[in-house]
Design a protein that fits this description.
By secondary structure, the protein is of the alpha+beta class. It folds into two domains: about 45 residues; about 35 residues, no CATH class. The strands form two sheets. It has a two-stranded antiparallel ribbon with strand order 1-4. A two-stranded antiparallel sheet has the order 2-3. The longest helix is centred in the N-terminal third of the chain and has 14 residues. The chain is elongated.
Length: about 90
């Protein structure tokens, strides 16, 4: 089935706002996850900067963080629920 640009853009925005992985997001949709990956790649959503590097830039301003969430480009999300001083967080 073919979808128009407006429908595709709507689903892309809905996915971005959901915070879900593409796999989870596509489970109850009328299209397969491979179709969504193709749409994302064609729209420029497949950010090659993250693919070439093993590290992602992180900026933090406060001296303590009550919790930390890291979301990788592949949809994996890591939540840490404990108060930490910035000196305790390593970026390498």
């Amino acid at each position: 089935m073919r979808y128009d640009r407006e429908q595709i853009d709507h689903w892309m925005k809905e996915w971005e706002e959901s915070g879900e992985s593409i796999y989870t997001f596509c489970m109850d949709k009328p299209f397969d996850k491979s179709t969504f990956y193709n749409w994302r790649k064609k729209s420029g959503g497949d950010d090659t900067r993250h693919r070439d590097s093993k590290f992602i830039s992180v900026s933090m301003v406060p001296s303590c963080v009550p919790q930390l969430s890291i979301q990788y480009p592949n949809g994996v999300k890591v939540d840490i629920h404990t108060t930490m001083r910035l000196q305790q967080i390593s970026y390498n």
